[in-house]
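If you are new to this repository, start here. Below is one unmodified record pulled from the training split, so you can see the exact layout before writing a loader.
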Amino acid sequence: MSYFNTNAYYQDNPAAQRVALIVVCIGSFLNPLILSSVMVAIPSIANDLQADAVLVSWIPTAFLFTTVVLMLPFGKLSDMYGRKRTFLRGIIILSLGSLLASMAPNIYVLIGCRVLQGIGAAQTMGTGMAIVTAVMPPARRGAALGYVATATYIGLTTGPLLGGFFTEHFGWRSVFVFHLPLAIFVVVLTIWKLKGDWKSDAELRFDWVGSLIFASWALLVLLGLSMMPSWFGATSLAFSCGLAYLFIRNQSKAEQPLVRVAALRANRVFSYSLISAFLLYSATFPITFLLSLYLQYIKGISPTMAGQFLIVQAVMMAILSPVTGHLSDRYEPRLLTSFGCISVAIGFALLLRIGFDTPNSYVVVSQIFIGIGFGFFTTPNNNAALGSLTSAGLGIASAILNLSRTLGNMIGMGVVMMIIAIRMGDALIEPSNYDQLLSAIHIALGLSFFYALIAAFYSFSRGKVR
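And here is the target side for that same chain:
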């Protein structure tokens, strides 16, 4: 089907709209499930593969880096060649990377498999919301995006729980394969039931130069952060600033850029939504990694128990996202998102007091605040951003919105890697350096608190959508 015919097929066709929503929701469930389940297995991976704290930090970071680098290019390619095709290919590559990761003989091969998983994730994350936004009428778009967010948070919820269970009973390698039957199911469902495709009728060209500059920038940022405070790390960060300037300049002059800088500047709602998402995800993504280390090393609890404690935040998100999705169709999103940012900041303020003797219930309470905040932020923020655009470029717009989130994840983890490298160096995590580990966790949580406050400012300042 052409772009026009595909949209005509889904217009006033609730059954077809539901199929598209189900497919995207399952895909949105898989990515966070894979990411969060592995977080709980990191201490076991470190012990089995004899990897230091900085190397195991690359297990989530390699996945995020690849996703960040490729999400914009795949968003553009999906507009050119079809969002369904890109989405389907992403699920297949993600599953292949998971299978290979389960057989990795050492930490370096495992990190390489995480890169392959990131290639697949970039394709699904860059297209899913665009498909939903294209098929749903404006009056139901917020609710539909709320269901996508709920699927994401259910993945985050079940990930630590299932990851802890499989790690404790079947070993860390099982964490990479238990989700494969569901991935096969979504591949079959996409081929069988998701009709047509979504691509632009206009002739588009791919921006290879911009993609290369952006990839080089992301690589230098991560290398620089992970190798601070060395001269190489500082030099890498300095060069990354130059590449960031070069990328913006290139995109401003390119005929068909990955990002239309002038359009972003002109659309205050979309651009401030991006900034808010970047800041809040920078704040919150490392929390699962940090609390997994805290609970299993400093508190000495099992992977299964740690997974149970870490699901609280995601449960709150899953419960609230459909509700706030409906609310964002009726009320100004900035009121909902600003409240969410403040609630997240309160949660981090509480976590700044954790220590060797802190009750585990205290960690649960702090995560409730963070979960409530994110439940009020994500869907209204996405609805406001995508609702401010026309439908033709939703593939790249969805990719940019997801990029702001994933870039926030990557930068947040990169800063945590830098803090751990400065406080602990390349030492293995042992009882003798638990004081340094706790200090690194406190510093990271303090930065997250300030990120959340700044996100609240941008969220409220975006102005009225209606």
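Two things worth knowing about this chain: The first helix runs from residue 3 to 10. The CA atoms of residues 164 and 304 lie 4 Å apart.
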